[in-house]
Specification:
The protein is α+β, with helices and mostly antiparallel strands and 222 residues long. The chain is built from five helices and eight strands; from the N terminus they run αβββαβαββββαα.
Length: 222
């Protein structure tokens, strides 16, 4: 798969923050995903073990969610763990994995944030600029913002708000389990991002593309 290389990854934390502020202005987060045209959806995750980063991208057919392709990549972890700068820690190994894809997904779902980020550019947004495909962030833990607890049934959600702006949704993907934090990354909007996540949620809290990518990244790291 062709990747649009936007910048070098070898930056200081201060340079990384400045770059985020610059790139955030390029994001498109009010464009509905054409769900009827989606045929392939990818889950994206990275695991780190013994200072090695292991990336996995799992491509599934949509809507039946049957596996199509799994690619992995590994490299020494290049950047410290700093909240809000995850893309600089995981971006290099993900770039390597994306380049190995033989199929071009219509949508990428990241284990991480889209615009639900203090500077409105989480990993799903940042890498969306490289992929130039619709991307969605699906995080397991809150990074920023406030919300009212959604209802307990699957499909219930509430808006995630930060500094007066709706930056995502807190979505119940399975009745009675903890919600996940959904936000558009790039070339997507919030309503269709939530709808796609729910259509990819089967028996588990995590939507199937992310769940499979998480397993692949973990297996690859052992």
């Amino acid at each position: 798969m062709k990747i649009h290389h936007r910048h070098d990854w070898n930056l200081s934390p201060e340079q990384a923050v400045a770059l985020q502020k610059q790139l955030a202005s390029e994001l498109v987060t009010d464009q509905p995903i054409a769900l009827d045209d989606v045929r392939l959806v990818a889950g994206v995750d990275v695991s780190v073990k013994n200072d090695l980063s292991h990336a996995a991208v799992v491509v599934l057919a949509f809507p039946d969610l049957q596996p199509v392709e799994t690619v992995t990549a590994a490299m020494p972890t290049p950047f410290p763990y700093i909240p809000g700068l995850l893309s600089f820690r995981e971006g290099p190994v993900l770039e390597s994995a994306f380049e190995r894809l033989q199929h071009v997904p219509d949508v990428f779902i990241f284990d991480g944030m889209g615009i639900a980020h203090p500077r409105r550019i989480g990993i799903a947004s940042h890498l969306g600029l490289w992929l130039q495909k619709p991307t969605i962030g699906c995080g397991k833990t809150l990074l920023t913002g406030r919300y009212a607890e959604p209802g307990s049934e699957k499909g219930a959600y509430s808006h995630l708000v930060d500094r007066g702006q709706v930056i995502g949704a807190v979505v119940r993907t399975r009745t009675g389990v903890k919600p996940v934090y959904i936000s558009p990354g790039h070339l997507a909007d919030l309503p269709t991002s939530v709808e796609l996540i729910l259509r990819c949620a089967t028996r588990y809290r995590l939507p199937e593309p992310i769940r499979r990518a998480h397993l692949a990244a973990g297996d690859f790291g052992t």
